[in-house]
Amino acid sequence: MDVLKIATAGSVDDGKSTLIGRLLFETNSITTDKLEAIMASSKKKGLDYIDLSLLTDGLIAEREQGITIDVAHIYFSTPMRKFIIADTPGHFEYTRNMVTGASNANVSMILVDARNGVVEQTFRHFYISCLLRIPNVVVCVNKMDLVDYDQKSFEETKAAFMAFAEKVRFPGQEISFIPVSSLYGENLVRQSELMPWYQEAPLLSLLEAIPLEQHLSEEPSRFPVQYVVRPKSEEFHDYRAYAGKVASGLLRKGERVVVLPSGQETTIARIEKFGREIEAAQAKESVSVLLQDDVDISRGDMIVPLSQLPRQSRQLEATICWMDKKPLRAGSTYLLQHGVNVAKAKVSTLSNLIDVVTLDNNTQVSELKLNEIADVQLKTAKEFFYDAFADNRANGSFILIDEQTNSTVGVGLIR
Amino acid sequence: MATHNTAFPRELEDEAIYILREVAAQFEKPVLLFSGGKDSITLVRLAQKAFYPARIPFPLLHVDTGHNFEETIRFRDELVEELGLELIVRYVQDSIDQQKVVEETGKYASRNVLQTVTLLDAIEEFGFDACIGGARRDEEKARAKERIFSVRNDFGQWDAKKQRPELFDMLNGRISMGENVRVFPISNWTELDVWNYIREEQLAIPSIYYSHERETFERDGQILPYSNFMLVSDDEPVSTRMVRFRTVGDMTCTAAVESTAVAIEDIIAEILSATVSERGARIDDKRSEAAMEKRKQAGYF
Q: In this model, does residue B50 exceed pLDDT 70?
């Protein structure tokens, strides 16, 4: 059974929580005690309806302020697949949390209030979906009940969205639109009879049918070594395996490979999962790899096929989303973590600060503040082996860590 | 809950193994918090797989409240023996004797809150820098917000507003002296995923998860196990019922469900038709709406 990861964003106002609550309710994923608990809380707050946002806004501060501050994870399943929703905040101040929630998503679900059409937050969410190269975007035009299920409102919203989308979408990105009413469950699980002009499948069927990223296995294979397994027991005296998760592509037994950075060539002798031999390992599989020759390998090294080498450099060009209160300035040094590989990196130049709503580009950038996005050049203390993020999400991204605070302060997408 | 069953999504196992290997690589003194419940049993299996054929490179820590089900303790010792694991046990009773904590009194007295102090003391005693736990995001709304690597300050506290961004699958385990990281490899699993995994992996679990005869009494609409650890009043008659437990906690805060489940398949069928969530049977969560978040702020796992 497969898993589809969905990122949603928005505020309470656009009905996102109601929509998620509905999906849970209609797929029998919410139990009576949880429902009773939010009914009691809604009553305590003096509401005359059940506030389903209380399901997802789990922190005291969130319930106090009635906003989503951090990502919540919500789980439900149908006979078709398991779904994980990363419910992220839509406010500008919490863009970094939106990026956190969206970074692992297969689908970006964007809610638009049919009465208001696209707003600033819609653009921000879509821009970040494109930046992170989320392959599927589903735009739910919600609250159709408040516009009399009018096709014209839906079409207008769609046109306004596409006018912006055409400027930032990437080739191959699927964008679908669906008119819904979360409050009444129209077009969520069942086809709405009130919108006969919309003939496509309801939201849940659409989510069940979205193809998972098959291309991951078509990409060149990248195997970052996470951990060296050396039992040193009597039974496994000379056993030495390299454990890790296949970042992309397909790793095959018998394949000629190169170990980076040493450049030594060898052959994959055996691939194991808990002692059981397998012929090939796919992207995202955690395995142990045994090699034909005695090669010096440690954590952070990468095993790649001889025929498909990654790029290698000590100079990286990337788009950065900044996530720390202390701004990023040219000349600053951070730790750069690329997969499981870490080295010092110095920011040499900053440019092209982008306004994600107007798409205005500011070429003169002195610093990058919290939640801002710009291009940077970095010089690293050692050579990195990478691909462009556009070609390979797993091997084309990194995080920056502040050595003083140890905090993750930025995410980089390599160009 | 969902009304249909499905196979275990193997992607979740790959993710958990990846997380456990990151722990072994990034930290000097990790420990696996082991309660004897199904989630920590799952963690042990995942750790076995992550490092096979080498031994699990960290010990298990059990914070023993003294109010455990004896079946759980027996199971724990057998598992440790069978797999050749290193087990450390620290006792809440010791924290009470050292007057670091005061035993709660009254009808709802429980050592659940007290165990935080014992846990933090053990972390300090051994210098653990990473504590692996079996918490899942689907259990509770504060847990739904937590990262996979969750940094705790030198008082063991969680600051929900200052969580590190966690991007793609890159885990940043860097910490300052005195801080520690709580690690949750099965964050993305649901109760059903855990049960399907236990079934597919044919893992042994403590007998209290299966239907058995037990002396019980009713309180606040729930069936509680009768034990010497609880004050039972005269209007709470004790009677024998066929029950099982959905979670393994303290006897004082874990309610039972009436059940005839004698096999994993029966348990799964019961969960599929249950209208009450797993933690609905945990009295420790019912203290207030934010009970879990408040305990986490105090250092609870």
A: yes
More confident site: A256 or B276: A256
B180: closest CA among B134, B122, B139, B141? B122
Checking if the pLDDT of A217 tops 80, the result is no
Distance from the Cα of B240 to chain A's closest Cα (Å) equals 26
Cβ neighbours for A167, distance < 8 A, ≥ 6 positions apart: A359
**Is B6–A229 a contact, with Cβ atoms under 8 angstroms apart?**
no
Subunit contact A397:B48, Cβ cutoff 8 A: no
Chain A residues lying within 8 Å of B3, measured CB to CB:
28
The residue among A9 and A290 whose pLDDT is bigger is A290
Phi and psi, residue B49, nearest 5°? -65, -40
Task: Give the pLDDT band (50/70/90) at residue B287.
Answer: low
Please list every residue in chain A whose beta carbon sits closer than 8 Å to the beta carbon of residue B172.
337, 399, 401, 406-408
Q: How far apart are CA B13 and CA B33, in angstroms?
A: 19
Task: Determine the Cα–Cα distance for residues A296 and B78; give it in Å rounded to an integer.
Answer: 39
**B48 at the A interface (CB within 8 A)?**
yes
Closest chain A residue to B293, measured at CA = A59
Region of poorest pLDDT, from A217-226, B49-58, B218-227, B290-299? B290-299
Most confident of A281-285, B176-180, B225-229, B287-291: A281-285
Buried b vs exposed e over A151-167: b needs ≥16 C-beta within 10 Å? eebbebbbeebeebbee
Range of the domain at A260: 217-305
Is the pLDDT at A17 greater than 80, yes or no?
A: no
Chain B: residue whose CA lies nearest to A338? B170
Q: In chain A, what residues touch B169 (CB-CB under 8 Å)?
A: 104, 245, 394
- What is the C-alpha separation between A54 and A74, in angstroms, rounded? 13
Whether B11 sits inside 8 A of A275 (CB atoms) is no
Q: Which domains, ranges and CATH numbers included, belong to chain B? A: 10-195+289-297 (3.40.50.620), 207-285 (no CATH)
* Structure letter (DSSP) for residue B136: -
Q: Tell me: the pLDDT tens digits for B77-105?
A: 999 999 999 999 999 999 889 988 888 88
Helix axis angle, A120-131 to A95-102, nearest 10°: 40
Question: Does the distance separating the beta carbons of A82 and B276 come in below 8 Å?
Answer: no
B1 neighbors B272 (Cβ within 8 angstroms): yes
Domain boundary residue, one of A265, A287, A305: A305
Mean pLDDT of A109-114: 94
Output the domain CATH number for residue A300.
2.40.30.10
pLDDT attached to residue B1: 45
Same domain assignment for residues A166 and A228: no
ipTM of predicted complex: 0.94
pLDDT of residue A22: 84
Q: Do B160 and A239 touch (CB under 8 A)?
A: no
> Quick one: CA dihedral B51, B54, B58, B64, positive or negative?
positive
Q: How far apart are CA B274 and CA B1, in angstroms?
A: 6
Q: Residue A129: give its domain's CATH number.
A: 3.40.50.300
**345-404 in A: which are within 8 Å (CB) of B?**
393-394, 397-399, 401
